[in-house]
Every structure is written in structure tokens, then in C-alpha cells.
Amino acid sequence: MATLKKKLQGLVAATLTPMTENGEINFSVIGQYVDYLVKEQGVKNVFVNGTTGEGLSLSISERRQVAEEWVTQGRNKLDQVVIHVGALSLKESQELARHAAEIGADGIAVIAPFFFKPWNKDVLVNFLREVAAAAPSLPFYYYHIPALTGVKIRAEEVLDGIQDKIPSFQGLKFSDTDLLDFGQCVDQNHQQQFALLFGVDEQLLSGLVMGATGAVGSTYNYLGKKTNQILEAFERKDFSSALNYQFCIQRFINFVVKLGFGVAQTKAIMTLVSGIPMGPPRLPLQKATREFTDHAAAKLKSLDFLSTADLKGRNLGACI
Ligand SMILES: CC(=O)N[C@@H]([C@@H](O)[C@H](O)[C@H](O)CO)[C@@H](O)CC(=O)C(=O)O
């Protein structure tokens, strides 16, 4: 049985994997990264080796080392460190799950296998169950990201009766825009106390309205503080402020999406905002261009998301 832990809630940063210019993992900055998230962004939970962390582009040995470094550096600083252990090979996934338990991670998450795909809910749940069984003491999360896995089985279906098969099941990370599906995950699982984590940062407020108990995302690395304002306004039922904050964040995401936005660009933005070098992504991803970074920087400044004292007060469209 999974040990009783505080329910995962609030913001969870989907961490980047810092790399050196020659493509090796730069473990040396992870301690600094933890401090930055906690002190500068007010984010105390991390989701490691997921999409943003290029988990599927790392070797198993690298994934183990990255997980270990986050757990070590996060001790007594972070609330929860959840490790994504999904892989195409069940054996590798189980190995990573066992390892996460050994190092003292707070939970594991798994995506649907995406080369040979499960063709229905039962097959998917069987796969997830085999992974969860390798680390039965760890809270288990299903990571639903159909646009990337191509596995379109609705999350609502996956959740139906899942605790009978996976006793350690604790929640869902929902990285999709189908609010009917997400709403039904919430509506049909009131009794279960699952953590239902929304994964589309630009639509977080809709997720909260629908009943999300927290959120996992890439932008919380550098817009955590701003996004916490949405959570706080929502909590005090100040929906008009919450919407304003969401619109501000949307203005930024909408801008970068038009330029072409993904993990490489997130690395560039995080480097710019935090000052911690995230390095390039690993192939097949391509490093963000200088032009992208310059445009993103200008936009961050114009929205007052980047504290440049000399720009303050000048821009009427600022989102302070
Ligand atoms: C497809 C994708 O990368 N989605 C991101 C979002 O945070 C996304 O970057 C954000 O909503 C901007 O579109 C997360 O859901 C991914 C994530 O949590 C992860 O890295 O595991």
C-alpha cells in the first residue's frame, strides 16, 4: 500500500533537465534550481523527467541520476518530488519505479506506452499496474498526454475503477484541453480524494473551475509566482482578478506559441529569467534561436514578468 502522504496540491514545476553545451547533464546546477523554485517562484513541488525534462530522451542511467539529484537537493526544501518513470519497455519502467522508491521520491507517474500502444483501457491499466506494483509504497499518478503519446483513451475511462487494480493510485496529471473529459474525472471521483492535476498552463483557471486540485506545468519554472496569484485569487473567490492574471499569462504564452514554443524554448526562457544555465535540449529537439530569446525577453519585460527596474511604470499593458 502507498504510504499516507499529504495530497499533492498547488503548483508543481515540470522541471527541465539542465545540460552542458556538449549535451551532458549538468547536475551541478540542480541545487541552485531547487532554491530558485522555492525562494523566487514559491513552487515547492517538482515533476522530474517528464516531457519538459526530456525524460524519454535520456538513458535509464541518466534518468536515475537526475531523479537522485532532485531528491537529494530537494530534501527539507521541497514538499514533493514526483518522478516520471514511463518508458516503452515495461522492464525499464519497473526498474525506474523501484529506483524512485529506493531513493525516497514522493511519487511516480507513468505515461501510456506510445510505440506499441494499448488499444483499450484495460490494456493500458494492466501496463500501469505492472509498473505501480514494482513500487507499491509510492503514490502512483497516471500522466495523460494524448497529443504526444497518441493514446486517446479518455482519462475518465482510465480512472474508472483504477484503485481496484492499482491500490497505490493517487491521481492524474491531465495534459489535455478536453474539459469534458477532465470534468468527468473530477465529477466521478469525488469520494476518492485523488490529486487531479491540470497540465495546460494557459488554461489553468478553467481547470480550477472544473475542480483541479493542483497543476503541473513547464511555465511554473519561471512564472510560478505569477501563477500562484491565480490560485490565491481563485481561493478567495476573486474570479475577476484570477481571470486577469490568467489573461496576463496567456498573453505571454500566446506570444511564444506563435514564435514556436516547446522544451528548447522553455530552456532558453528559464535561463534568461532565472540566470541558471539550462543549456541546449537533446536531439531531435533544436536549440532556441537568439531571435526567439530576444523576442521572449522583450515580451516578458513588457508584461513586467522580468524585473527590469528601468522598465517599470513605463508600460501600460503591464501585468503586475
Ligand atoms: C505539451 C507540454 O509540454 N505541456 C506542458 C505544459 O506545461 C505546457 O508547456 C504549457 O501549458 C504551455 O503550453 C506540461 O503539461 C508538460 C509537463 O507537465 C511535463 O513536462 O511533464
TrEMBL record:
Pfam families found in the cross-reference section: DHDPS
The protein's Enzyme Commission number: 4.1.3.3
A GO molecular function held by the record: N-acetylneuraminate lyase activity
Subcellular location: Cytoplasm
One of the GO biological process terms: carbohydrate metabolic process
Catalysis: reaction(s): aceneuramate = aldehydo-N-acetyl-D-mannosamine + pyruvate
Keywords: Carbohydrate metabolism, Cytoplasm, Lyase, Schiff base
Pathway the protein acts in: Amino-sugar metabolism; N-acetylneuraminate degradation
Listed SUPFAM superfamilies: Aldolase
Keyword Membrane found: no
Active site feature: 143, 173
Presence of keyword Ribosomal protein: no
Primary subcellular site in the record, as a coarse category: cytoplasm
Coiled-coil segments on the chain, per record: none
Cross-referenced InterPro entries: Aldolase_TIM (IPR013785), DapA-like (IPR002220), NanA (IPR005264)
One Gene Ontology CC term in the entry: cytoplasm
Residue numbers binding pyruvate: 52, 216
Similarity comment: Belongs to the DapA family. NanA subfamily.
Quaternary assembly: Homotetramer.
Entry-linked PANTHER family: DIHYDRODIPICOLINATE SYNTHASE (PTHR12128), N-ACETYLNEURAMINATE LYASE (PTHR12128:SF21)
Name of this chain's protein: N-acetylneuraminate lyase
Source species taxonomy: Eukaryota, Metazoa, Chordata, Craniata, Vertebrata
Gene that encodes the chain: Npl
